[in-house]
Amino acid sequence: MKKLLSSLFISLLFAPLLALASGAELHLDRAPDRSGDKAALQNGAKVFVNYCLNCHSASYMRYNRLKDIGLTDQQIKDNLLFTADKVGEQMSVAMRRDEAKEWFGVAPPDLTVIARARASEFGSGADWLYTYLRSFYRDSDRPTGWNNLVFENVGMPHVLWELQGEQVMGGDHKLTLATPGKLKPQAYDDMVADLVGFLQYMGEPAATKRKSLGWMVVFFLGVLFVLSYALKREYWKDIH
Protein backbone atom coordinates (compact mmCIF):
# COMPACT_ATOMS: atom_id res chain seq x y z
CA MET A 1 0.00 0.00 0.00
CA LYS A 2 2.86 2.36 0.88
CA LYS A 3 4.54 1.59 -2.46
CA LEU A 4 1.28 2.30 -4.31
CA LEU A 5 0.81 5.62 -2.52
CA SER A 6 4.45 6.50 -3.13
CA SER A 7 4.15 5.74 -6.85
CA LEU A 8 0.95 7.76 -7.07
CA PHE A 9 2.58 10.72 -5.31
CA ILE A 10 5.57 10.65 -7.68
CA SER A 11 3.25 10.45 -10.71
CA LEU A 12 1.29 13.47 -9.54
CA LEU A 13 4.48 15.34 -8.74
CA PHE A 14 5.98 14.89 -12.20
CA ALA A 15 2.75 15.03 -14.23
CA PRO A 16 3.10 18.77 -15.00
CA LEU A 17 6.67 18.24 -16.19
CA LEU A 18 5.61 15.39 -18.45
CA ALA A 19 2.79 17.49 -19.87
CA LEU A 20 5.21 20.33 -20.53
CA ALA A 21 7.61 17.99 -22.26
CA SER A 22 4.89 16.58 -24.51
CA GLY A 23 3.61 20.07 -25.36
CA ALA A 24 7.11 21.21 -26.29
CA GLU A 25 7.01 18.94 -29.37
CA LEU A 26 4.59 21.35 -31.05
CA HIS A 27 6.62 24.16 -32.63
CA LEU A 28 4.64 27.30 -33.41
CA ASP A 29 5.89 29.97 -35.77
CA ARG A 30 5.65 33.54 -34.56
CA ALA A 31 2.70 35.35 -36.16
CA PRO A 32 3.43 38.88 -37.43
CA ASP A 33 1.58 41.57 -35.48
CA ARG A 34 -1.18 43.14 -37.57
CA SER A 35 -3.12 44.75 -34.70
CA GLY A 36 -2.41 48.35 -35.72
CA ASP A 37 -2.41 47.86 -39.49
CA LYS A 38 -5.88 48.71 -40.83
CA ALA A 39 -5.00 47.80 -44.43
CA ALA A 40 -3.85 44.35 -43.30
CA LEU A 41 -6.99 43.87 -41.20
CA GLN A 42 -9.16 44.88 -44.16
CA ASN A 43 -7.39 42.31 -46.32
CA GLY A 44 -7.85 39.74 -43.55
CA ALA A 45 -11.57 40.51 -43.48
CA LYS A 46 -11.76 39.98 -47.25
CA VAL A 47 -9.99 36.62 -47.00
CA PHE A 48 -12.21 35.58 -44.09
CA VAL A 49 -15.45 36.40 -45.93
CA ASN A 50 -14.35 34.75 -49.17
CA TYR A 51 -12.76 31.58 -47.79
CA CYS A 52 -13.88 31.00 -44.19
CA LEU A 53 -17.42 32.33 -43.94
CA ASN A 54 -18.69 29.64 -46.30
CA CYS A 55 -18.53 27.07 -43.48
CA HIS A 56 -17.53 28.94 -40.31
CA SER A 57 -19.73 31.57 -38.73
CA ALA A 58 -18.69 34.54 -36.63
CA SER A 59 -22.01 34.96 -34.90
CA TYR A 60 -20.75 37.31 -32.17
CA MET A 61 -19.42 39.76 -34.75
CA ARG A 62 -21.49 42.25 -36.73
CA TYR A 63 -20.54 43.61 -40.13
CA ASN A 64 -20.78 47.20 -38.92
CA ARG A 65 -17.81 46.60 -36.57
CA LEU A 66 -15.67 46.53 -39.72
CA LYS A 67 -15.99 50.31 -39.75
CA ASP A 68 -13.53 50.25 -36.84
CA ILE A 69 -10.82 49.04 -39.24
CA GLY A 70 -11.47 51.84 -41.74
CA LEU A 71 -14.24 50.50 -43.97
CA THR A 72 -17.37 52.46 -44.84
CA ASP A 73 -20.91 51.08 -44.90
CA GLN A 74 -20.87 51.19 -48.70
CA GLN A 75 -17.57 49.33 -48.93
CA ILE A 76 -18.91 46.64 -46.61
CA LYS A 77 -22.10 46.30 -48.66
CA ASP A 78 -20.28 46.16 -52.00
CA ASN A 79 -17.42 43.84 -51.05
CA LEU A 80 -18.16 41.83 -47.90
CA LEU A 81 -21.90 41.56 -47.32
CA PHE A 82 -22.55 38.13 -48.85
CA THR A 83 -24.34 36.31 -46.02
CA ALA A 84 -26.61 39.12 -44.79
CA ASP A 85 -28.84 41.91 -46.06
CA LYS A 86 -27.94 44.72 -43.66
CA VAL A 87 -24.62 46.01 -42.31
CA GLY A 88 -25.88 45.68 -38.74
CA GLU A 89 -26.45 41.93 -39.02
CA GLN A 90 -24.24 39.21 -37.59
CA MET A 91 -21.63 37.37 -39.66
CA SER A 92 -23.62 34.16 -39.85
CA VAL A 93 -23.42 31.26 -42.30
CA ALA A 94 -26.21 29.60 -44.27
CA MET A 95 -24.93 26.04 -43.82
CA ARG A 96 -26.79 24.06 -41.13
CA ARG A 97 -24.75 22.47 -38.33
CA ASP A 98 -26.29 19.02 -38.83
CA GLU A 99 -25.40 19.09 -42.52
CA ALA A 100 -21.87 20.28 -41.75
CA LYS A 101 -21.40 17.48 -39.24
CA GLU A 102 -22.54 14.94 -41.83
CA TRP A 103 -20.15 16.28 -44.46
CA PHE A 104 -17.06 16.93 -42.32
CA GLY A 105 -17.62 14.61 -39.35
CA VAL A 106 -17.85 17.59 -37.01
CA ALA A 107 -19.61 20.94 -37.27
CA PRO A 108 -17.15 23.75 -38.09
CA PRO A 109 -16.69 25.92 -34.98
CA ASP A 110 -17.68 29.55 -34.73
CA LEU A 111 -14.54 31.66 -35.28
CA THR A 112 -15.43 34.85 -33.42
CA VAL A 113 -13.21 34.06 -30.46
CA ILE A 114 -11.06 31.27 -31.96
CA ALA A 115 -7.83 33.23 -31.38
CA ARG A 116 -8.64 33.67 -27.69
CA ALA A 117 -9.71 30.04 -27.36
CA ARG A 118 -6.45 28.75 -28.83
CA ALA A 119 -4.52 31.19 -26.65
CA SER A 120 -5.95 29.52 -23.56
CA GLU A 121 -4.65 26.16 -24.83
CA PHE A 122 -1.32 27.05 -26.41
CA GLY A 123 -0.28 30.41 -24.97
CA SER A 124 -0.60 32.30 -28.25
CA GLY A 125 -3.71 31.87 -30.33
CA ALA A 126 -2.23 33.95 -33.14
CA ASP A 127 0.90 31.77 -33.35
CA TRP A 128 -1.21 28.61 -33.37
CA LEU A 129 -3.52 29.84 -36.14
CA TYR A 130 -0.61 31.20 -38.19
CA THR A 131 1.22 27.89 -38.04
CA TYR A 132 -1.93 25.82 -38.55
CA LEU A 133 -3.00 27.61 -41.74
CA ARG A 134 0.46 27.05 -43.23
CA SER A 135 0.79 23.37 -42.22
CA PHE A 136 -1.69 21.51 -44.40
CA TYR A 137 -0.33 18.67 -46.52
CA ARG A 138 -1.67 16.04 -48.87
CA ASP A 139 -2.77 12.79 -47.20
CA SER A 140 -4.60 10.20 -49.29
CA ASP A 141 -5.68 8.35 -46.14
CA ARG A 142 -7.88 11.24 -45.00
CA PRO A 143 -11.47 11.65 -46.27
CA THR A 144 -10.76 15.20 -47.45
CA GLY A 145 -7.38 14.33 -48.90
CA TRP A 146 -5.67 16.69 -46.45
CA ASN A 147 -4.02 16.50 -43.06
CA ASN A 148 -2.32 19.03 -40.85
CA LEU A 149 0.99 18.99 -39.02
CA VAL A 150 -0.37 21.05 -36.12
CA PHE A 151 -3.86 19.50 -35.90
CA GLU A 152 -3.47 15.81 -36.77
CA ASN A 153 -6.43 14.19 -38.56
CA VAL A 154 -8.28 17.47 -38.77
CA GLY A 155 -11.68 17.29 -40.45
CA MET A 156 -11.24 20.61 -42.24
CA PRO A 157 -10.00 20.52 -45.84
CA HIS A 158 -7.34 22.97 -46.98
CA VAL A 159 -9.57 25.71 -48.39
CA LEU A 160 -6.57 27.89 -49.27
CA TRP A 161 -4.73 25.22 -51.24
CA GLU A 162 -5.10 27.00 -54.58
CA LEU A 163 -3.27 29.97 -53.11
CA GLN A 164 -0.57 28.07 -51.20
CA GLY A 165 -0.20 25.03 -53.44
CA GLU A 166 0.17 21.42 -52.30
CA GLN A 167 2.61 20.44 -49.57
CA VAL A 168 3.71 16.88 -48.88
CA MET A 169 5.15 15.26 -45.80
CA GLY A 170 8.74 14.15 -46.11
CA GLY A 171 10.48 11.27 -44.36
CA ASP A 172 11.93 13.72 -41.84
CA HIS A 173 8.38 14.86 -40.92
CA LYS A 174 8.98 18.20 -42.61
CA LEU A 175 6.73 19.75 -45.21
CA THR A 176 7.87 20.60 -48.71
CA LEU A 177 5.95 22.44 -51.42
CA ALA A 178 5.38 19.87 -54.18
CA THR A 179 3.01 21.94 -56.35
CA PRO A 180 3.20 25.75 -56.24
CA GLY A 181 0.02 27.76 -55.76
CA LYS A 182 -1.15 31.07 -57.15
CA LEU A 183 0.84 32.96 -54.51
CA LYS A 184 4.53 32.90 -53.78
CA PRO A 185 5.35 31.37 -50.34
CA GLN A 186 6.09 34.76 -48.78
CA ALA A 187 2.93 36.29 -50.26
CA TYR A 188 0.89 33.40 -48.89
CA ASP A 189 2.44 33.81 -45.44
CA ASP A 190 1.64 37.54 -45.52
CA MET A 191 -1.98 36.81 -46.47
CA VAL A 192 -2.30 34.27 -43.63
CA ALA A 193 -0.84 36.83 -41.23
CA ASP A 194 -3.53 39.32 -42.33
CA LEU A 195 -6.24 36.69 -41.82
CA VAL A 196 -4.92 35.77 -38.37
CA GLY A 197 -4.78 39.46 -37.49
CA PHE A 198 -8.45 39.78 -38.39
CA LEU A 199 -9.35 36.69 -36.36
CA GLN A 200 -7.59 38.28 -33.40
CA TYR A 201 -9.45 41.53 -34.00
CA MET A 202 -12.82 39.73 -33.99
CA GLY A 203 -12.07 38.20 -30.61
CA GLU A 204 -11.65 41.65 -29.05
CA PRO A 205 -12.49 44.51 -31.44
CA ALA A 206 -11.82 47.14 -28.78
CA ALA A 207 -8.33 45.82 -27.92
CA THR A 208 -6.40 48.53 -29.79
CA LYS A 209 -8.54 51.31 -28.30
CA ARG A 210 -8.25 49.73 -24.86
CA LYS A 211 -4.46 49.59 -25.10
CA SER A 212 -4.16 53.21 -26.22
CA LEU A 213 -6.52 54.25 -23.42
CA GLY A 214 -4.39 52.26 -20.98
CA TRP A 215 -1.29 54.27 -21.89
CA MET A 216 -3.25 57.47 -21.36
CA VAL A 217 -4.32 56.26 -17.92
CA VAL A 218 -0.72 55.33 -17.03
CA PHE A 219 0.46 58.79 -18.16
CA PHE A 220 -2.27 60.48 -16.10
CA LEU A 221 -1.35 58.44 -13.02
CA GLY A 222 2.31 59.37 -13.51
CA VAL A 223 1.48 63.08 -13.64
CA LEU A 224 -0.81 62.69 -10.64
CA PHE A 225 2.00 60.96 -8.70
CA VAL A 226 4.42 63.81 -9.39
CA LEU A 227 1.88 66.44 -8.32
CA SER A 228 0.90 64.45 -5.22
CA TYR A 229 4.55 64.02 -4.23
CA ALA A 230 5.22 67.74 -4.70
CA LEU A 231 2.14 68.58 -2.62
CA LYS A 232 3.26 66.15 0.08
CA ARG A 233 6.72 67.78 0.29
CA GLU A 234 5.20 71.23 0.42
CA TYR A 235 2.79 70.21 3.17
CA TRP A 236 5.42 68.52 5.38
CA LYS A 237 8.40 70.83 4.84
CA ASP A 238 7.80 72.97 7.98
CA ILE A 239 7.09 69.95 10.17
CA HIS A 240 10.43 68.26 9.50
TrEMBL record:
Where is this gene product found?
A: Membrane
Using the UniProt record, give the first listed, main subcellular location.
Answer: membrane
Q: Give one GO molecular function term.
A: heme binding
Q: Does the keyword Transmembrane apply?
A: yes
Q: Which residues form a coiled coil?
A: none
Q: Which cofactor does it need?
A: heme c
Give TM regions. 213-231
Instruction: Specify the superkingdom.
Output: Bacteria
> What's any one GO cellular component for it?
membrane
Keyword annotations from UniProtKB, A to Z: Heme, Iron, Membrane, Metal-binding, Signal, Transmembrane, Transmembrane helix
Q: Which Pfam family, any one of them, does this sequence belong to?
A: Cytochrom_C1
Record-given protein name: Cytochrome C
